[in-house]
Automatic annotation (TrEMBL), chains A, B:
Gene source species: Companilactobacillus nuruki
Annotated protein name in UniProt: NADPH:quinone reductase
Domain Flavodoxin-like fold: 1-153
Record-linked InterPro entries: Flavodoxin_fold, Flavoprotein-like_sf, KefG/KefF
Lineage: Bacteria, Bacillati, Bacillota, Bacilli, Lactobacillales
Keyword Protease: no
Length: 230, 230
């Protein structure tokens, strides 16, 4: 699976959040695509880029309840009617669509009765409408609230969650999560091949042991439930 | 009451709808403000413009379920946090906020189960969120669907409805409508002063006669209802 991250930020070098995410997105099969850097938008090239990826992510800071104008400009140029509505090879219908949005406000403000008085899902309606029109599968939005107040351990958790959002099989259930971690452990431990990495082996052994325990628990629960149904 | 129409359209001269609305907006106390024509956005000047009007209208064609990027660019520059959140003289809290949006799709498509599968109100959420943040009073959105298919009489009705949207006292009830028409008749008939305008007098007389009939009917209905309550 290949993922395209369409990033919009007018001052990306000044953004701690985006610089952090940029480091996180340095993964195999992930393409980072910053729209404000495009001098001229080559519509065909942009459409090919979309066609050549399986998961399309719009990533941006929340400016007045929407993406910066750069993303809208890109949308209005690149998303021609035929390309989005089109049938045949040109359509986006077999792809997944996700949003990574960052905000300086606390997440608790985004609810009815909260100080924003609107939910993140509600203000993302225009993007979901595009994805619906293109018959894409919509992933739950990934919201990053108040990155600047996160301590290092919360940031590390965010990094993993973000990487999973970009590359893990949807939906985000235990099975897909396990598969993702197992693959990532194996991939990343390769980098330690010239070092005697005892820690790596221990982590992997523990992970596999726990996974087997969970599988055992699951089949026990399944047996109990079967008993209940009889 | 002074109304500011903040218009966004990247090719306004080619837009039949916008040219039609431009003619309609040539009214006393209505300022037409096309954001794509601004070479550089002078934030202070734009904020003064907003402060000096009582009703703020965002007017645009629907491009991918939102305004063209020009409006977002204007928003991101002009709507500084202090200006929108601010207390004291600088706030927008005593103003009204409306949207005039045009679309080439039929209005019936904008509902759940319709081919757009989303309502106009839902996709306008980011604009309502701004208005809410600024504590402005939100007017019902004025949607123009498929202008190109309208015949002349439908267009003329649209023109009147649009002019009422820009200048009539909110809410749009019978009393405010009557007042609007009476004032507009009087104002516009002035232009006929060097012509012997019998038609004008007839129209005004008929209007006033009917208004009195309605008032009579209303007090009759009121009496009947009072009888029912006893």
């Amino acid at each position: 699976m290949k993922t395209l991250v369409v990033v919009s930020h007018p001052k990306i070098n000044d953004s701690q959040t985006q610089q952090f995410l940029l480091e996180g997105a340095k993964l195999q099969d992930v393409t980072w695509h910053h729209v404000e850097e495009l001098k001229n938008i080559d519509v065909e090239k942009e459409q090919s880029l979309l066609k050549n990826h399986d998961r399309i992510i719009f990533q941006f800071p929340l400016y007045w309840y929407s993406a910066p104008s750069g993303l809208k400009h890109w949308e209005d140029e690149v998303l021609t009617r035929n390309f989005v509505y089109g049938d045949g090879d040109d359509n986006l219908g077999d792809k997944e669509f996700g949003i990574v949005v960052s905000t300086g406000m606390p997440l608790k403000d985004f609810c009815h009765g909260g100080s924003e008085n609107v939910t993140i899902d509600e203000i993302m309606a225009p993007y979901f409408a595009i994805a619906n029109r293109a018959k894409m599968k919509i992933l739950p939005t990934f919201t990053i609230a108040q990155f600047q107040y996160m301590n290092e351990s919360v940031q590390m958790q965010l990094l993993i969650d973000y990487q999973r959002y970009l590359t893990q099989t949807y939906p985000d259930n235990l099975k897909n999560r396990q598969e993702w971690f197992e693959r990532e452990f194996a991939d990343r431990f390769k980098d330690f091949n010239d070092i005697n990495c005892n820690a790596c082996e221990t982590i992997l052994d523990t992970f596999i042991q726990r996974k087997e325990n969970i599988d055992q628990l699951k089949s026990t629960i399944s047996l109990i439930k079967q008993g209940e149904d009889d």
